[in-house]
Amino acid sequence: MVSKKITPANGEVLAVFSKGQVLTENSSEAQGLYNQNRYGTLLENGRVQLSLLEAFYLLEKKRIAVLDGKNNALSAENLFKKVTRQESNFRIRYAVFRDLRDRGYIVKTAFKFGADFRVYDRGVKPGEDHAKWVVFPVHESSSLTWHEFSAKNRVAHSTKKRLMMAVVDDENDVTYYEIAWKRP
To answer: Of 47, 91, 97, 106, which is the most buried if we count CB atoms within 10 A?
Structure first.
Protein backbone atom coordinates (compact mmCIF):
# COMPACT_ATOMS: atom_id res chain seq x y z
CA MET A 1 0.00 0.00 0.00
CA VAL A 2 1.30 3.46 -0.85
CA SER A 3 1.67 5.52 2.32
CA LYS A 4 2.95 8.80 0.88
CA LYS A 5 1.82 10.76 -2.13
CA ILE A 6 4.05 10.23 -5.15
CA THR A 7 3.17 11.90 -8.42
CA PRO A 8 4.25 9.94 -11.49
CA ALA A 9 5.47 11.88 -14.53
CA ASN A 10 3.49 12.41 -17.74
CA GLY A 11 0.23 10.86 -16.56
CA GLU A 12 1.75 7.49 -15.70
CA VAL A 13 -0.36 5.20 -13.56
CA LEU A 14 1.11 4.45 -10.16
CA ALA A 15 1.65 0.76 -9.36
CA VAL A 16 3.28 -1.16 -6.50
CA PHE A 17 5.39 -4.30 -6.88
CA SER A 18 5.07 -6.35 -3.72
CA LYS A 19 5.09 -10.06 -2.90
CA GLY A 20 5.54 -11.03 -6.53
CA GLN A 21 2.60 -9.08 -7.89
CA VAL A 22 1.92 -5.63 -9.30
CA LEU A 23 -1.18 -3.65 -8.29
CA THR A 24 -2.10 -0.25 -9.68
CA GLU A 25 -3.67 2.61 -7.82
CA ASN A 26 -7.45 2.97 -7.91
CA SER A 27 -7.87 5.60 -10.61
CA SER A 28 -9.72 6.11 -13.86
CA GLU A 29 -6.36 6.00 -15.69
CA ALA A 30 -5.55 2.60 -14.16
CA GLN A 31 -8.99 1.29 -15.02
CA GLY A 32 -8.45 2.65 -18.54
CA LEU A 33 -5.46 0.31 -18.93
CA TYR A 34 -7.89 -2.55 -18.43
CA ASN A 35 -10.94 -1.17 -20.24
CA GLN A 36 -9.16 0.08 -23.36
CA ASN A 37 -6.36 -2.45 -23.83
CA ARG A 38 -7.23 -5.31 -21.45
CA TYR A 39 -4.06 -5.06 -19.39
CA GLY A 40 -4.35 -7.01 -16.15
CA THR A 41 -7.41 -7.99 -14.16
CA LEU A 42 -9.80 -5.38 -12.82
CA LEU A 43 -10.34 -5.98 -9.11
CA GLU A 44 -13.44 -5.12 -7.08
CA ASN A 45 -11.56 -2.34 -5.25
CA GLY A 46 -10.93 -0.51 -8.55
CA ARG A 47 -7.28 -1.47 -8.79
CA VAL A 48 -5.81 -3.45 -11.66
CA GLN A 49 -3.62 -6.48 -10.97
CA LEU A 50 -0.98 -6.72 -13.68
CA SER A 51 1.05 -9.76 -14.63
CA LEU A 52 4.81 -9.27 -14.35
CA LEU A 53 5.01 -9.24 -18.15
CA GLU A 54 2.33 -6.57 -18.44
CA ALA A 55 3.92 -4.45 -15.71
CA PHE A 56 7.36 -4.59 -17.29
CA TYR A 57 5.93 -3.76 -20.72
CA LEU A 58 3.92 -0.81 -19.41
CA LEU A 59 6.93 0.44 -17.44
CA GLU A 60 9.09 0.31 -20.59
CA LYS A 61 6.36 2.17 -22.50
CA LYS A 62 6.21 4.77 -19.69
CA ARG A 63 2.51 4.09 -19.06
CA ILE A 64 3.09 3.17 -15.40
CA ALA A 65 5.52 4.04 -12.62
CA VAL A 66 6.36 1.09 -10.37
CA LEU A 67 7.26 1.37 -6.71
CA ASP A 68 8.64 -1.35 -4.49
CA GLY A 69 7.08 -2.17 -1.12
CA LYS A 70 9.10 0.68 0.48
CA ASN A 71 7.84 3.33 -1.99
CA ASN A 72 11.10 3.44 -3.94
CA ALA A 73 10.68 3.93 -7.69
CA LEU A 74 11.85 0.95 -9.73
CA SER A 75 13.60 1.44 -13.05
CA ALA A 76 12.97 -1.05 -15.84
CA GLU A 77 16.40 -2.54 -15.10
CA ASN A 78 15.59 -3.00 -11.39
CA LEU A 79 12.20 -4.53 -12.10
CA PHE A 80 13.77 -6.85 -14.68
CA LYS A 81 16.26 -8.11 -12.08
CA LYS A 82 13.46 -8.75 -9.58
CA VAL A 83 11.16 -10.59 -11.97
CA THR A 84 13.90 -12.74 -13.50
CA ARG A 85 14.66 -14.00 -9.99
CA GLN A 86 11.05 -15.16 -9.79
CA GLU A 87 10.72 -16.45 -13.34
CA SER A 88 13.79 -17.94 -15.02
CA ASN A 89 12.22 -17.93 -18.52
CA PHE A 90 11.08 -14.30 -18.28
CA ARG A 91 13.37 -12.93 -21.01
CA ILE A 92 12.09 -15.38 -23.62
CA ARG A 93 8.45 -14.98 -22.61
CA TYR A 94 8.79 -11.19 -22.52
CA ALA A 95 10.29 -11.02 -26.02
CA VAL A 96 7.19 -12.79 -27.34
CA PHE A 97 4.77 -10.79 -25.19
CA ARG A 98 6.31 -7.48 -26.28
CA ASP A 99 6.36 -8.45 -29.95
CA LEU A 100 2.70 -9.52 -29.95
CA ARG A 101 1.56 -6.43 -28.01
CA ASP A 102 3.56 -4.15 -30.31
CA ARG A 103 1.75 -5.80 -33.26
CA GLY A 104 -1.63 -4.94 -31.72
CA TYR A 105 -2.66 -8.28 -30.21
CA ILE A 106 -4.11 -8.74 -26.72
CA VAL A 107 -2.06 -11.32 -24.85
CA LYS A 108 -3.24 -13.05 -21.67
CA THR A 109 -1.87 -15.95 -19.66
CA ALA A 110 -3.04 -19.44 -20.60
CA PHE A 111 -1.83 -21.51 -17.67
CA LYS A 112 -5.23 -23.14 -17.24
CA PHE A 113 -4.92 -24.31 -20.85
CA GLY A 114 -1.42 -25.66 -20.25
CA ALA A 115 0.20 -22.95 -22.39
CA ASP A 116 2.07 -19.72 -21.75
CA PHE A 117 -0.24 -17.33 -23.59
CA ARG A 118 -3.59 -17.09 -25.25
CA VAL A 119 -3.71 -14.47 -27.97
CA TYR A 120 -6.75 -12.67 -29.31
CA ASP A 121 -7.03 -11.57 -32.90
CA ARG A 122 -6.63 -7.83 -33.50
CA GLY A 123 -9.70 -5.89 -32.47
CA VAL A 124 -11.04 -8.70 -30.25
CA LYS A 125 -11.12 -8.26 -26.47
CA PRO A 126 -11.34 -11.09 -23.95
CA GLY A 127 -14.97 -11.67 -23.10
CA GLU A 128 -16.13 -10.55 -26.55
CA ASP A 129 -14.84 -13.68 -28.27
CA HIS A 130 -12.42 -16.54 -27.66
CA ALA A 131 -8.67 -16.38 -28.12
CA LYS A 132 -7.48 -17.50 -31.54
CA TRP A 133 -4.12 -18.98 -30.52
CA VAL A 134 -2.28 -20.62 -27.66
CA VAL A 135 1.37 -19.64 -27.79
CA PHE A 136 4.45 -21.40 -26.46
CA PRO A 137 7.61 -19.24 -26.37
CA VAL A 138 10.89 -21.16 -26.79
CA HIS A 139 14.50 -20.19 -27.30
CA GLU A 140 15.97 -21.18 -30.65
CA SER A 141 18.50 -23.47 -28.97
CA SER A 142 15.92 -25.39 -26.93
CA SER A 143 14.49 -28.68 -28.10
CA LEU A 144 11.22 -30.54 -27.71
CA THR A 145 10.60 -34.25 -27.80
CA TRP A 146 7.86 -35.52 -30.08
CA HIS A 147 5.87 -36.31 -26.96
CA GLU A 148 6.16 -32.70 -25.71
CA PHE A 149 5.33 -31.34 -29.14
CA SER A 150 2.30 -33.61 -29.45
CA ALA A 151 1.09 -32.59 -25.98
CA LYS A 152 1.23 -28.90 -26.99
CA ASN A 153 -0.71 -29.64 -30.16
CA ARG A 154 -3.34 -31.58 -28.19
CA VAL A 155 -3.77 -28.64 -25.79
CA ALA A 156 -4.47 -26.31 -28.70
CA HIS A 157 -6.80 -28.78 -30.40
CA SER A 158 -8.78 -29.58 -27.24
CA THR A 159 -9.28 -25.85 -26.47
CA LYS A 160 -10.28 -25.12 -30.09
CA LYS A 161 -7.38 -22.75 -30.58
CA ARG A 162 -4.52 -22.67 -33.04
CA LEU A 163 -1.08 -23.71 -31.82
CA MET A 164 1.68 -21.20 -32.30
CA MET A 165 5.31 -21.76 -31.40
CA ALA A 166 7.20 -18.49 -30.88
CA VAL A 167 10.93 -19.04 -31.39
CA VAL A 168 13.17 -16.36 -29.87
CA ASP A 169 16.77 -15.94 -31.03
CA ASP A 170 19.72 -14.45 -29.13
CA GLU A 171 18.85 -10.94 -30.40
CA ASN A 172 15.28 -11.32 -29.00
CA ASP A 173 13.80 -11.47 -32.51
CA VAL A 174 10.72 -13.70 -32.67
CA THR A 175 9.69 -16.08 -35.45
CA TYR A 176 6.22 -17.63 -35.28
CA TYR A 177 5.21 -21.07 -36.49
CA GLU A 178 1.55 -22.02 -36.54
CA ILE A 179 0.99 -25.76 -36.30
CA ALA A 180 -2.24 -27.50 -37.25
CA TRP A 181 -3.63 -31.05 -37.25
CA LYS A 182 -3.87 -32.55 -40.71
CA ARG A 183 -5.76 -35.71 -41.57
CA PRO A 184 -4.33 -37.88 -44.36
So the answer is: 97
pLDDT tens, residue by residue, 15-24: 999 888 999 9
pLDDT tens, 93-104? 999 999 999 999
Does the pTM of the predicted model rise above 0.85?
yes
For the question of residue 147 being annotated catalytic, the response is no
Annotated active-site residue in 39, 105, 152, 161: 161
Residue 120 designated active-site: yes
Domains in the chain, CATH or no CATH each: 9-86 (3.40.1170.20), 90-179 (3.40.1350.10)
CB 134 within 8 A of CB 103: no
Please state, as a whole number, how many other Cβ atoms lie within 10 Å of the Cβ of residue 48. Answer: 26
Residue of 81, 130, 176, 177 with catalytic role? 130
Percent helix, percent strand, percent coil in the chain, to nearest 5:
35, 30, 40
Buried b (16+ CB within 10 A) or exposed e, 130-154: ebbbbbbbbeeeeeeeeeeeeebbe
Distance CA 95, CA 172 (A): 6
Q: Answer yes or no: 105 catalytic.
A: no
Rounded distance, CA 29 to CA 11, Å? 8
- Please spell the DSSP secondary structure of 75-130, one letter per residue: PHHHHHHHHHHH-TTHHHHHHHHHHHHHTT-EEEE-GGGTSSEEEEPTT--BTTB-
